[in-house]
Structure formats: structure tokens, C-alpha cells
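Q: I have two molecules that I believe assemble together. Could you output C-alpha cells for the complex as a whole instead of separate predictions?
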Amino acid sequence: MTGSSSLRTAALQRPSRICVERMAKENYSFTVEPDLYKIDAFSAKVSEIVRRTKGNETGFRAGLIVIEACSNIVKHGELKEDDFISVNLEVGEEAVTITIEDASTKFNPLEVDDPNLENIELLQKGGMGVYLIKRFSKRIDYRYENGKNLLKIII
Amino acid sequence: MFEFRLAKDEIGVISLEKRARITGETSSNFRKWQDTVDLKSCSRVILDGTNIEFIDSMGIAALISIYKTIAAEGNDLVLVNLSEEIKKLLNTLRLDRLFIVKDCSVAEAIKDLC
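A: Yes, here they are, computed for all two components at once.
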């Protein structure tokens, strides 16, 4: 089953350039603008898709992983405005797989040390996002190929 | 978007006017908003999570900011009506040791605190 549609950032009532292409029954391909508003709307959409078949908890996890990973790219990746983030979402019977591809600076989240949870000052400044991605996923694979970060997260 | 009211015994109650995601700019606005209300003079503060649809690390950082303001006066931040997913998120970050998380209504929390 194929088709396409565009999402709208409801809070802003302005068009989002997130493009969605439904490739198969449970396989979706997205292109997301490097913009925190758009990423938030995209995260909500991913949560909704996953929640439909996998329930609230997995839906929440999927949305959280997407917003943390994509926000990190926007905040730290030095992407150009026209450098979109590509995301593939596969909702399988056994697992949900999210693959994120971006052309920003090389960044391997698996090399990031876990934050010190005892120190709320440091925790507040950063480090929670990558930690949450690690804790809310079953497996993470990372590779840097042809100038792109490829992050595959299995929930 | 955010509302504040004083209940009895100087207990402050923070709530969201409508269902919202505490992410990105909303988190920044939440942090700015807290400077406009007098949380320091509250005996305790209850945050009603009924309308918190979703929260990310930036939203959590905003909660920590509110906690710090309240804890500096030796008072507690009590979170009620959170979804199971948000409670699990707070547990994962071990923030349940900072915040008091209760499974009850705002009215019940006020009654317990008085």
C-alpha cells in the first residue's frame, strides 16, 4: 500500500515540510526539516503511528527517541536549512525500528558517557537525551558512511 | 498556557490550561513563566500533570528548574496525575527521588499536605 501526505504543525498553524510516504503496511519513510517545531510535530506523529499497534508505552518511547535524536542533530549538528533529516520507521511484529540519517557533523551517541544522575546541575545542562535513547531502546547501531550519520534504534 | 493558583495553607498549584507537549520552546516558556509567579512563598507546590501529554529532556530540565526554586526554600514539589509513561521516564532518570510523585487528584494531594 503506498500513498503520501503532508503533516501540519498544529500549534503554529503553518505548513510543515515534513513529507510522509507510506511504503508498506508498517513501513514509513519521512523527511523532516531541521527545526524543533517540526521535529516535535513529527515525534507526535511517530508516537501516534506506533501507539496504534503497539500501545501507549511503545508509542511514547518511539516519540521520545525520535525527538531526542532529531533535536540533538538540530542543536549540535550544524545542519544547513536545506539539509533534511531522513527517518525510516518500521513497525514489525517483534520490534519497532527507527533509522535516522543526517548529514550533520559526525556524532556517535554510543560513545557518549552516561550522565551522572546524582548531579542535577549537570543533568539539567544536557546528557539526558542520549541517555534516554539508550535506556528506552533494546539495541542501537551507529555508523558514519558517505558523510552521513546512520543511527538505527530498535525498540 | 500555564496556570498558577494558591490553595489553602499557601500550597501552590501549577496546571496546564489545555493538553500540551512539554518540549522545545514550550519548555523554555515554562522556565520563563515560573519567574513570573511567586513559587518561593509557597509552603509546597503541586504540579497537576493531567494535561501533560508528553515530555522530553528539555521539559524535564524545566521541571528540574522549578524543583530547584522550590527546594531552595526547603519545600517540596509534588507531581500528581502523571501518565504511566511520564512516571517511568522520571524513574529512569531517578528524578522520583527529587519530586514527590503521587497517584491522586490535586484535591487529595492538598488534603494530604495540609
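A: One point stands out. The first helix of chain B runs from residue 24 to 34.
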